[in-house]
Amino acid sequence: MSLALEEYTGEESQLAADKNLFGKYEVGKLLGYGAFAKVYHGWDIESQQSVAIKAINKHRIIKVGLTKHIKREISAMRRLRHPNIVRLHEVLANQKKIYFVLEYAKGGELFSKVSRSRFSEVLSRRYFQQLISAIGYCHSRGVYHRDLKPENLLLDENWNLKVTDFGLSWVTEQVKSDELLHTMCGTPAYVAPEILAKKGYDGAKVDIWSCGIILYVLNAGYLPFNDPNLMVMYRKIYKGEFRVPRWTSPELKHFLSRLLDTNPHTRITVQEILSHPWFKIGYKEARVSFSHFEMKYDVGRSGNLNAFDIISFSSGYNLGGLFEEQDDGEMFLSAVEPQVIIERVAEVAAAERLTVVMRKEWCVQIDGGHYCNFTLTMEIKRLTDELVVVDVRWKEKSESEPGLEMWKDKIRPELSSLIYQPAGSVTSS
Predict the structure, then answer these.
(1) Ramachandran class of 423: left when φ > 0, alpha when ψ lies in -120 to 50, beta otherwise
(2) Which cofactor is recorded for it (predicted)?
(3) For residue 300, is pLDDT > 80?
């Protein structure tokens, strides 16, 4: 047995043996797996609703440098609430894994259906309409999928389409100053020609190209651009060399030519798709009700956190973000009540001749004044019934003032007794 397979089998056995995820979800059978994640069928223990649980190996993705993909997937799916997009209910985490609790699509992959036989033009149009409804919504929220293919399209129990897997997605805040994307991405047979040109591309236009490939596959039962030699296939894509099957209607043929236009500037847009005669037949725009698609949050207590605010449950100080330290602060877990933490910070500040300028139940701010020209803010948020997260931020008023040194050398050592250490962990010296 290979080392990778042994590691995979061990992880699967560990999760299967546990069967219970944070006391909230029951873990069922394995649905599928990739290099860095496995997806299980599960149940919400309280509601008994079926869910899909995507378990991601945190250490493995750090090792290969894929942390940005996970951050991006969370960032994208937080924005999206649409009936044709798989819903992200919740994110949970421990020291080794990140768990996405997702809507369970009972019908499986669209790919498994179209791989058996092509769809009728009527059925192809129905799924393409649902796809465009979802992708148009994504684009309106500043999210570009960039890896659209039948394997990333699921079906629910009513055979409605659900877009999933936003691991290669991109959001508008991450676009370069020229408003073009520059990262090679996607699956070879579905990649747009402008990506191959490596000159930057519009994420929306790339998604439209992939939608055109998907529509072709639904209607034909095979890919428009395909060749065992990858470079030959890329040349076909770049030149737009494809033929439609003989059973394709003239209206669909024209529509496909607009979708698979190799020039992104003249390629059809979402708005033009919505008004195209072939597309409009029987189309009903999906109604998005935010009350039906609310994400789970821990509510009801002041200062609460959910797993989107803090994913890492490491011991000690370094809990910043998903995986890395913060430039202007530190975070740590504590099992001490917030008022006790605030009181201790005030005592340390007084001992170091610092001034407490603001003090509340969940927050305290201290100022060095003339003695040490910096400010430090400490905010406390509830993570679980037993644990809180202490978020420490500092701001130096002058580069020459030793504010950071004051925190690290004077204040932080006096708070060491407040730091939570998980059972069996070793405190670093």
Answers:
(1) beta
(2) Mn(2+)
(3) no
Tokens encoding 346: 């005030």
Domain ranges of the chain: 3-105, 108-290, 329-418
The pair of structure tokens assigned to 36 is 């860095």
Nearest of 208, 215, 206 to residue 161 by alpha carbon? 215
Q: Does the domain made of 108-290 have the CATH classification 3.40.718.10?
A: no
Q: Which residues contact 81 (CB under 8 A, 6 or more apart)?
A: 87, 288, 290, 293, 294
Spatial separation of the C-alpha atoms in residues 46 and 296, rounded to whole Å:
13
- Cα–Cα distance, 8 to 60 (Å, whole number): 11
Q: Is residue 233 within 8 Å of residue 189, measured between CB atoms? A: yes
- State yes or no: 63 annotated in a binding site: yes
Using CA atoms, how far apart are residues 318 and 313, in angstroms rounded to an integer? Answer: 9
Residue 411 is classified by DSSP as I
**Is 40 within 8 Å of 15 (Cβ atoms)?**
yes
Distances (CA, A) of 312 to 58, 95, 222, 331, 378: 9, 6, 43, 10, 19
Higher pLDDT, 418 or 177: 418
| Closest CA relative to residue 115, chosen from 146, 138, 87, 149 | 149
**How many helices and strands (H and E) does the chain possess?**
14, 16
Write down the pLDDT at residue 183.
Answer: 43
Q: Mean pLDDT: which of 11-15, 49-53, 57-61, 151-155 is highest? A: 49-53
pLDDT, residue 302, reads 40
User: Homologous superfamily of 3-105 in CATH?
Assistant: Phosphorylase Kinase; domain 1 (3.30.200.20)
Query: Nearest CA to 165 among 286, 36, 60?
Result: 36
Tell me the two tokens of residue 190: 């579905």
Which residue shows structure tokens 């819903």?
A: 87
Check residue 207 and give its pLDDT.
Answer: 92
* C-beta of residue 170 within 8 angstroms of C-beta of residue 77: no
| pTM confidence score | 0.63
What is the Cβ-side half-sphere exposure of residue 338, based on CA atoms within 13 angstroms?
Answer: 22
**Mean of pLDDT values over 278-287:** 85
Kindly indicate the confidence band of residue 175, based on its pLDDT and cuts at 50, 70 and 90.
Answer: very low
Please give the Cα distance from 337 to 317 (Å, whole number). 17
Place of tokens 């699921």: 154
The catalytic residues are 147
pLDDT of residue 27: 94
pLDDT tens-digit readout, 236-268: 998 998 999 999 999 999 999 999 999 999 999
